[in-house]
Amino acid sequence: MPSIRALALFEGQLWIGFGSGSCGGIGYLDVTTAQYVGLTSVASMQSGSERPDQPPACGVSGIKTADEKTLWVGTSCSLKRFDIQTGKWSTALPFAPLGLSVEETFVSVGAPTGGVLVCQLPGNNWQAISLSKKPDQNLVSTLMNEGQRIWLGSEHKLRHLDVPAQMVIGGARFDGGFVRWIYPEESFVWFVADGPTNGTSILGRCDRHPKIILQARE
To answer: Residue 198: is its pLDDT beyond 90?
Structure first.
């Protein structure tokens, strides 16, 4: 399958997530030997049918790891967890996550019904955090964990969520569509979002300490 949707490089292996329509798969390339190892069977990839304890067969949207021991894989069907040492797969969430970010202490995803789901590691319990009582302001398109906080992207806005307090502590608006990528650095938070017109994109940035314009559960 030539359609590559996600990449992750660590420990000399380039993990590759594929996706086309409702089908997909995952494997990795040994960067030293240039040998590719496919983990999803051809039959599963062609059918797009996933099993809870097997590699993804739906389109892969994200591959993340924080400790290089556990791989988190978001697909168009579920969120999967892969123990690299034992080679065991499990299903962490039975639905497609909207965004995926991993810190050493927790994993976060955007929930399709709105808000954020957070799992404190090494546990398996997911906590739902609502961002707003208004459904159209509760959606998340992408996110990025940083310490005990999460940068959230949605339609024409960025938000900064304090996880222990379960509160939005800052935010910034911009003219454009949904945020697709976030990267915080020392002075600014960079983001890529859909442009104000179809087929365009914008690159923007905001101060790391944006003015508080939103309150949790407004």
So the answer is: no
